[in-house]
Design goal:
Blueprint (H helix, E strand, L loop, with lengths): L3 E4 L13 E4 L1 H5 L15 E4 L9 H11 L4 E2 L2 H8 L1 H4 L3 H11 L8 E8 L9 H11 L3 E8 L3 E8 L10 H12 L14 E6 L11 H13 L2 E6 L12 E4 L8 H11 L4 E2 L2 H8 L1 H10 L7 E4 L4 H5 L6 E4 L9 E4 L2 H12 L5 E5 L5 E8 L2 E9 L8 E3 L5 E3 L2 E4 L6 H14 L3 E9 L2 E8 L15 H17 L1
Parallel strand pairs: 1-2, 1-3, 3-4, 8-9, 8-10, 10-11
Antiparallel strand pairs: 5-6, 6-7, 12-15, 13-14, 13-15, 16-17, 16-21, 17-20, 18-19, 21-22
Helix pairs in contact: 5-6, 8-15
Length: 489
C-alpha cells in the first residue's frame, strides 16, 4: 500500500526502495504523472519533498504548494519554507533551540569556532546533539538540515539551512537512509515472521507517573491486541516528541492537562492529520470542570446542583449552600483538589485554600452513595461498566494518604447490557457532547435519578479492573478503533 511519495531532483539510488513508497521527480509530481496514480485522490499519502531548492517559486516550492492544494500532508510545508528562507521569521525559534543546545552540548573551545552538523529527519550522527536535532526538526520540519554552531563565550546556533541530498557526504548516506527508514516507520514495518504490519501506533506514557491511566499490564495488553490486529505498537515519552509525526496514530496513556505536554503533543498530532486519543478538544472540554458543568447543563444532562465561586462571591455563597458540600478546583484530577465542607466554617477555610490555586472554584451538592458508576464510551458506544466503591471509611473512591500513597475501594465490572439502561443512556449522551474519542463517564445513581459527576478524557483502563468482563477483547476493540480512524483520514 502506498504511504509515501518522495520527491527528488537528484540521483534516486541514494534513497532505498520500499513497497510503501514511490520516488518521483518534481516535474512528474507537478504534472501529476505517477504511472496511473491520480494525486487528487491520495489524501492519505504523505509527501516528503527532498528537492535541492526550496526558494520561492522554485520547483521545490511548487511541489509543496501543490501537495497542500491536493490535501496531502507534506514536509516541508510552504509555511515552513517561508519561515526558514526568511531568516527574520525563524529568529524567534532560536532562543528555545539554544536553550536545548546549552543543556546538552558542552564541548570545550579555547577560541571562537564554528562547526556545521547535518540533521536527517530529526536525527544526527553526533550523539550529543540528538536533542537539538529532534527539536530543530520539530520546529522547522525540513527533512534534511544543516545547523551551523558558533562558539564565542558559549555554543550557539548561528544559522540553519536546508540541506540537499548532494551535500551529504558519501560516508553519511547510510545514516541518512536509516533515518529515513525510521521516520517512515519502515524499520518497524515487519514482524519476526516476515508479516507486514499495517499501521504504527505510538502510546505516550510516563514510566514514572504515580497514578497512570493504565498500569504496566494493561499497556502490554494494548501491545498484544495491536499485534493481533497486525499493528506495530511502540511506547514513547514526552522526550520523543519529534518522533510523533512518524506514527499513524497516537494513543495518550498519561494523565492529561491543558497546560501540559500531553495537550501540546495531542495538538501537534492533530494538526498534522494524525488521529489521536485524547484529541485536544476532548482534553480542553474534560480537564476543566467549569466548562464541563456549563456544557452538560446547557444540554440538559443531569448533574449535582453546582455553583461557580470566585473571591468576590465566596462569602455570599457560603450561607446559601446545603451542607455537606463538595468544593472542587476546575482542573483537578484523580480526586485531587476535591474536598468536602461539613459546615460554613469548613467552607471558609477550604474555599480560601482552593482559591489560592484557581481564580474560580466549584461548590457542588453532595450526593451520598456507596459507589460510583463508570461507563466507558468509545466513539459513542458504551464498552464497559464498572462500579467503583468508596474507599473504606472515606467519602471518595480514592483517599489520598500523602503525596505518594492512597487507598481505593473495591470494584465490580459487569456487562454493559446488565448496567441500568438509564445510567448507560445518560453516560453516552454526556460523552457525545465531548467528542468521538474514549471517555470514562462517572455517575451517581440515586432514588431521585442519575447524575453525571464527571467525564474523563483518558479514563483508567487497568488490568483486572475495567477489563474485568471483556478481558482482552476490550483492548482489541480500542486498537481496532485506531484502524478505523486511520483509514478514515
Amino acid at each position: 500500500m502506498l504511504k509515501y511519495i518522495l520527491i527528488t531532483d537528484e540521483a534516486r539510488e541514494t534513497i532505498p526502495d520500499h513497497p510503501d513508497r514511490v520516488i518521483v521527480t518534481p516535474d512528474d509530481f507537478i504534472a501529476n504523472r505517477l504511472h496511473g496514480i491520480d494525486l487528487h485522490h491520495c489524501q492519505r499519502v504523505k509527501v516528503i519533498n527532498l528537492c535541492s531548492d526550496y526558494e520561492y517559486m522554485s520547483k521545490g516550492y511548487y511541489c509543496s504548494l501543490l501537495a497542500e492544494a491536493r490535501n496531502m500532508r507534506c514536509i516541508p510545508s510552504v509555511s515552513h519554507m517561508i519561515q526558514l528562507n526568511w531568516k527574520r521569521n525563524y529568529q524567534s525559534a532560536l532562543p528555545e533551540l539554544n536553550g536545548v543546545l546549552d543543556r546538552v552540548f558542552k564541548e570545550p573551545a579555547d577560541e571562537p569556532l564554528e562547526r556545521t552538523y547535518y540533521v536527517y529527519f530529526g536525527r544526527t550522527s553526533h550523539p550529543k546533539l540528538d536533542a537539538v536535532a529532534r527539536r530543530a526538526f520539530d520546529l522547522f520540519r525540513f527533512p534534511l538540515l544543516a545547523i551551523e554552531l558558533h562558539y564565542g563565550k558559549k555554543w550557539e546556533v548561528k544559522n540553519i539551512e536546508p540541506l540537499a541530498l548532494s551535500d551529504i557526504p558519501d560516508e553519511k548516506m547510510s545514516f541518512m537512509a536509516d533515518a529515513l527508514e525510521k521516520f517512515t516507520g519502515s524499520a518497524w514495518s515487519s514482524t519476526n515472521n516476515g508479516k507486514k504490519e499495517k499501521y504504527w501506533i505510538g502510546i505516550l506514557h510516563d514510566p514514572d507517573e504515580q497514578h497512570p491511566p493504565s498500569d504496566k499490564k494493561a499497556l502490554q495488553k494494548f501491545v498484544k491486541a495491536g499485534k493481533e490486529l497486525n499493528l506495530s505498537v511502540e511506547f514513547i515519552t514526552k522526550h520523543d516528541s519529534a518522533s510523533i509525526l512518524e506514527y499513524d496514530a497516537l494513543f495518550i496513556r498519561e494523565t492529561t492537562a491543558i497546560n501540559h505536554h500531553t495537550y501540546r503533543l495531542a495538538n501537534k498530532a492533530e494538526s498534522e492529520g494524525i488521529p489521536v486519543i485524547d484529541d485536544p478538544q476532548s482534553i480542553i472540554r474534560c480537564c476543566n470542570k467549569v466548562f464541563l458543568f456549563e456544557l452538560l447543563s446547557a444540554n440538559k444532562v443531569p448533574t449535582p446542583k453546582t455553583t461557580i465561586i470566585d473571591k468576590r462571591t465566596e462569602r455570599k455563597i457560603r450561607d446559601t449552600l446545603a451542607y455537606p458540600a463538595v468544593l472542587k478546583i476546575p482542573d483537578g484530577a484523580f480526586s485531587q483538589g476535591v474536598v468536602k465542607a461539613e459546615n460554613p466554617e469548613d467552607f471558609d477555610r477550604m474555599a480560601r485554600e482552593l482559591l489560592k490555586k484557581s481564580e474560580i472554584i466549584l461548590a457542588q451538592e453532595f450526593i451520598q452513595s456507596d459507589f460510583d458508576w463508570r461507563i466507558g464510551v468509545l466513539n459513542g458506544e458504551a464498552i464497559f461498566a464498572c462500579k467503583y466503591f468508596m474507599a473504606k471509611g472515606h467519602w471518595q473512591i480514592y483517599q489520598h494518604l500523602d503525596d505518594h500513597n492512597f487507598q481505593d475501594g473495591d470494584h465490580i465490572t459487569i456487562p454493559i447490557e446488565e448496567a441500568p439502561k438509564n445510567v448507560v443512556k445518560i453516560a453516552t449522551k454526556a460523552a457525545s457532547l465531548i467528542g468521538k474519542g474514549l471517555y470514562g463517564v462517572d455517575l451517581k445513581e440515586t432514588k431521585d435519578g442519575v447524575y453525571v459527576i464527571e467525564v474523563n478524557d483518558n479514563p483508567s483502563i487497568d488490568s483486572g479492573v475495567e477489563d474485568g468482563y471483556l478481558g482482552d477483547a476490550l483492548y482489541r476493540k480500542i486498537m481496532q478503533h485506531f484502524i478505523t480512524l486511520i483509514e478514515a483520514e
